[in-house]
Amino acid sequence: MLRNLTLSILRYERVKTTEAKAKEIRGEVDRMINLGKDGSLEARRRAAAWLPETVIVNKVFDDLAKRYADRTSGFTRWTRLPRRVGDNAPLALIELMPHDEEKKAAEPAEEKPRRRRLPSLRRGGGEKKEEKSEEKAEKAAPKKTTRKKTPARAPSRGAAGSRSSKED
């Protein structure tokens, strides 16, 4: 189970799992990335013995080792998520830490002025308060209409039933 979860984290770089598994798997992911940073043949064989797919082993030794060259540990972070619906288990999102260059690329994007969100039309946020108060005043005023009152009719039993009673 730990091998498959390690493989999933290294493949997708983020996985939603239970908190206990997330805490346990951090050390395994750190160990694999440190093997990739070592880069020796022995380290590659040890990683291949733990990870069943050679594509992921190559990713660890080529991409992730270069990404975390300046770090010694702490390659993952986990964030608490709401509890699972079926069994109320505490969930966590475990993901690989972003690279420093990825953070620097994200900083200029934050310098742009933020766009204002428009108020939701469902909640009636698009109208002004003055207009709302005028509408409420109009609705509160009773409408004067004359309506002709008609007497209530008794339900009819059908044409055949009424004829037979008259004939007797």
Q: How do the strands and helices of this protein lay out in sequence?
A:
Blueprint (H helix, E strand, L loop, with lengths): L1 H11 L1 E5 H20 L2 H10 L3 H14 L8 E6 L9 E6 L3 H11 L18 H12 L18 H9 L1
Antiparallel strand pairs: 1-3, 2-3
Helix pairs in contact: 1-2, 2-3, 2-4
Can you tell me about this structure?
By secondary structure, the chain is mainly alpha-helical. It has a domain at 2-81 and 90-97: Alpha-Beta Complex (50s Ribosomal Protein L17, Chain: A), CATH 3.90.1030. Helices cover 52% and strands 10% of the residues. It is built from seven helices and three strands, in the order H-E-H-H-H-E-E-H-H-H. A three-stranded antiparallel beta sheet has the order 1-3-2, covered by helices on one side. The longest helix has 20 residues, at 19-38.
